[in-house]
Amino acid sequence: MTRARLYLYDTTLRDGQQTQGVQFSTAEKHQIAAMLDQLGIDYVEGGWPGANPTDSEFFASPPATRATLTAFGMTKRAGRSAENDDVLAAVLNAGTNSVCLVGKAHDYHVTHALGITLEDNLESIRASVAHCVAQSRETHFDAEHFFDGYKANPDYALQALHAAQEAGARWIVLCDTNGGTLPNEIGAITEAVIASGIPGDRLGIHCHDDTGQAVACTLAAVEAGARQIQGTLNGLGERCGNASLTTLIPTLALKPSFAARFETGVSPEALGQLLRISRKLDDIINRVPLRTLPYVGASAFAHKAGLHASAIAKDPSTYEHIDPSLVGNARLVPMSNQAGQSNLRMVLADMGLAVARDDPRLPGILDDIKTREEAGYAYDSAQASFELLARRALGQVPQFFEVKRYRVTVERRKNKYDQMVSLSEAVVVLKIGDDKKLSVSESMDAEGHDRGPVNALAKALAKDLGPYQGAIDDMKLVDFKVRITQGGTEAVTRVIIDSEDGQGRRWSTVGVSANIVDASFEALLDAVIWKLLRDGVRPCPS
Amino acid sequence: MTRARLYLYDTTLRDGQQTQGVQFSTAEKHQIAAMLDQLGIDYVEGGWPGANPTDSEFFASPPATRATLTAFGMTKRAGRSAENDDVLAAVLNAGTNSVCLVGKAHDYHVTHALGITLEDNLESIRASVAHCVAQSRETHFDAEHFFDGYKANPDYALQALHAAQEAGARWIVLCDTNGGTLPNEIGAITEAVIASGIPGDRLGIHCHDDTGQAVACTLAAVEAGARQIQGTLNGLGERCGNASLTTLIPTLALKPSFAARFETGVSPEALGQLLRISRKLDDIINRVPLRTLPYVGASAFAHKAGLHASAIAKDPSTYEHIDPSLVGNARLVPMSNQAGQSNLRMVLADMGLAVARDDPRLPGILDDIKTREEAGYAYDSAQASFELLARRALGQVPQFFEVKRYRVTVERRKNKYDQMVSLSEAVVVLKIGDDKKLSVSESMDAEGHDRGPVNALAKALAKDLGPYQGAIDDMKLVDFKVRITQGGTEAVTRVIIDSEDGQGRRWSTVGVSANIVDASFEALLDAVIWKLLRDGVRPCPS
């Protein structure tokens, strides 16, 4: 049986940017476009050329994608020709093979928001689409507020779609702009559209999550016959977000009732990268990944209930709707039970630490992890600190040096040119063997700008490690993440530091304290000690 | 037309507690039960008496609720009588009027997870339900893995339901335990159950969000005839969570296609408390409320796109699927460089700043926002800093005081008990009118713990504001968020501070710098100045 092809249209770079707090740079847009391409998306909507400098810059040097890059814009304004509409011109000047124009399909919006006649709006749709088609563009027409418009005035809403179809639009996209339409309504109205003479393989669907049903609404339209799916990675988008491609893609690929009937451009290999791509997007927008995200969330295959965990030990399918590895995810069973111990042994084995099944130190390590995670530590993001914790419990971390004290000062005052400037200075006092080492550093960078207290501390700590200096000279701090989190009953600061060395090794360490400087110093120390340990440096006798 | 009654069954206190990181105390369970009662929930499942000390303690001193308090448990084990099953006895000994027993409905789970015969399982269901009914309990039967079981062996799955029905269960609850079933399957199978002889008004539905469709699955079962809805507040629950009552309740109440046919025990007044109840639960479990939550999220009615904002200014219904006040929420027009001049004018009007459409200062303010957001500022999360930016451009922020300099020191060393301890100290020098004010503070909290350099700075800044002191005495720092972000070409630190005053006002300010202490100080300063301005404090002449 041949399966119908569904086309995936991603609007992360345009509608996704309407998310509160999200603002992509041009470089980030390129990064995301590459991720979408790797995933096997058919259309990548890059933004609205002419609407803002970032989007214009993106289209001025567009990424080379296998996916069809699409420029978004609006149907021409009434009272001028398509040829003379500067907004439309900016969209066409982006030079993409594909364009998407949004236009009104709801009579009330035409007369009240635009303030033009119903016929003028149809003429704008017709002329704008025809103009794009004449310029050899594959043209998508986003019918804004289509479902609300259909409920208010079905004849007019359909006329808007047919105007676009007759003008040559390849795709007519039914948009539930306000996100309030329910799945059964979406299904029934999509069927009515097809009955009116627009075939399903020219119909797209664009939903929002305002009733928590964007995915279900999208699938209802597919069931009714629509063949293009618009959405965003991780469900980014205005208000509650757009339909999430991160959820739709695995549902279409892995649920038999869809997989038997439909195919997309996403290969099983690309699907296996889904978690990585989802997390990468969160990295770019600097968000804590949502643990409960379907398929790719850290909790999506976490089994806390004791009954479930023991059944899973017999057969994972008993409490898992899919095999988590198909989307790059993994089962997670809390570390506090028997399954936790075997997990722990596996992790330790990966670090080269073979520990027997009945080693009496295993429960102690698990308890330690539990206590420290309750205090705010996060070991899944700081494997090097986890390794140090385990090695300490196993008596494998020597005392390389002792931190006697440190002090960091930030001072902000006027300089001789009467400008306010800052200066951070750190003093670190160590005991290495029998030697006492005092180091002091400022945090000035090459341009003479102050980089703050943590930078000063890192420089002071690394300035004179005596006999160990050779081992840490090639080490640098490459990332620094700060989170305010809960440690027991009060807020604490968690700092995660990523370090890198000359061999290209990268490792992450964590520190937690109510004092951000202390938390940072703890993570810095772990980073140095891990490096000394991994390089096989021998401690000085003291 | 009479509307069918839908019964709401909340399992926040039992299934909700399977959420990773959630563990309710008995006192918290009482608090949540009271919230559910206020909302108008019909059944409150309090936990599993006998399974853990907290749940047993909760039922030992149960809350007085209008809702029917329900104890959860499991059908008896094979090979013993219902009367002699200690697990079942613990459930009945809780003394509630209502009990819910989970039992197997999937043949594979019976033979593989339980390891008993199919007939033994049916007997366990029959005998357990009959025993509860004989003890005058309203009995719910949770048919675990029902949908997967029906797909594998429909006859056996239905036999399990009928065993419970014949034994006198008031409610037979169809559970999609693994959360992988799709809405159309849920609808079709629920219809098949009704066709088999179990009327819809004895059927409940229990869904999980593993494909992001728990709400849609629940509504599909209601469409098919089920009349009891199980779910949790905010969609808490194992893995991706349970069906969210916080989303289902307003959908049932406010969407015409459901409201015309169904009613629940939730009054319009209670619905107006939905946001407050949702946030209160987040408070209890110490979570940052999810901004994108349907209906009650902080972003659920946020309009970032310039085009949308200008239409909303004419008529809010153009881009809102419901009136946000019906669920206790409010419209939000965030400022960002995406936004156009009409957004800006609306936001300014909300602050009491009427600015004419053609005011020449508007483009300058937008440019300023753009430049600063590129440098790392985020004004949609820091409305008070945005207001100061706009008011400065309009010449409405007087110079209350001048910061001459500050210095903050963090020192970590051994105390007299040979323990490593930290101490943070800050000095702030201000000029107020003609007076120079030097203030110094430590960051010690009531328990003698160091809270770090930002805390010390905040205390020093607020210590002696001379003539302004009265205005800031009731002000406190309630949240502090740190992000490493991109400011132009290099990483900078963005700090957002939430402040609150004695009138319960809450405001957010932002600071950005490569130096975290400087970024924090900038946000602190904005917080103080916003408060002075809003309180109408007059600046001292200098």
UniProtKB/TrEMBL annotation, chains A, B:
Transmembrane segments: none
Organism from which the protein derives: Roseinatronobacter ekhonensis
Gene3D superfamilies reported for this sequence: 1.10.238.260, 3.30.160.270, Aldolase class I (3.20.20.70)
Domain Pyruvate carboxyltransferase: 6-272
PROSITE patterns per record: AIPM_HOMOCIT_SYNTH_1, AIPM_HOMOCIT_SYNTH_2, PYR_CT
EC numbers: 2.3.3.21
Keyword terms: Acyltransferase, Amino-acid biosynthesis, Branched-chain amino acid biosynthesis, Isoleucine biosynthesis, Transferase
Pathway field: Amino-acid biosynthesis; L-isoleucine biosynthesis; 2-oxobutanoate from pyruvate: step 1/3
Protein name: Citramalate synthase
